[in-house]
Amino acid sequence: MTRRPTALAAGALALLPLAALASDSSDPIVIPIHNWSSQIVMSNVVGQILEGMGNTVEYVTTDSQAVYESIRLGDVTLELEVWEGAFGASFRAAMEKGGIVDVGDHDAITREDWWYPMWTKDACPGLPSWEALNDCAALFATPETGDKGRYLDGPVDWLKHGKERVEALDMDFEVINAGSAAALWAEIGAAEADKTPVVVFNWTPNFAEAVWPGEFVEFPEWVDGCDKDPALGPNPEMLYDCGNPADGYLKKAAWEGMADKWPGAYAVLEKISFTNPQIAEMARLVDIDELEPDEAAEEWLAANEDIWTAWTE
Ligand code: TMO
Question: For residue 5, is pLDDT > 70?
Answer without folding.
Answer: no
